[in-house]
Amino acid sequence: MTERWKPHVTVAAVIERDGRYLLVEEHTPDGLRLNNPAGHLDPGERPEDGCAREALEETAHHFTPTALVGLYLTHAAATPAQPQGITYLRLAFSGELGTFEAGRALDSGIVRTVWMTLDEVRASAPSHRTPVLLQCVLDHHAGRRYPLDLVYTHPSAVYARR
């Protein structure tokens, strides 16, 4: 093998309020899909900061990560654009839902936000963007919370975006 394997790092917010989970419905190459508020970690960004940014961009809600729910590795099937497929490493965080910015435009591709019960999340599994969405929610529901300092970001990895 001449090419080094590099998984794509993503961050996801697992947001629960009154027994309902906040998901986004988004356009994907496979049609409309549900996902946690999530996205790629940007260069120079700490994972918890990336999670807060993605939650705001996709839901218009401020979000403060307070715990790591888990780390999730998954592989997306091959496509013509990605003949080897893509492996993703997701860091999922729980936290505090903050203020809502009414009128804030959501990220391109996001159609709407939806609040779903655990049973509704389970029932909607065929329309999940990633197979780990349900596992993130199940782990949150089971009470899995790990300290944020479990994910250490060395200062050399945090820098101003160019």
From TrEMBL:
Gene3D superfamilies: Nucleoside Triphosphate Pyrophosphohydrolase (3.90.79.10). Residues 6-138 form the Nudix hydrolase domain. Its EC number is 3.6.1.-. Its cofactor is Mg(2+). It comes from the Bacteria. One of its GO terms (molecular function) is hydrolase activity. CDD domains: NUDIX_Hydrolase. Monomer. Belongs to the Nudix hydrolase family. NudJ subfamily. This is Phosphatase NudJ. It comes from Hydrogenophaga defluvii.
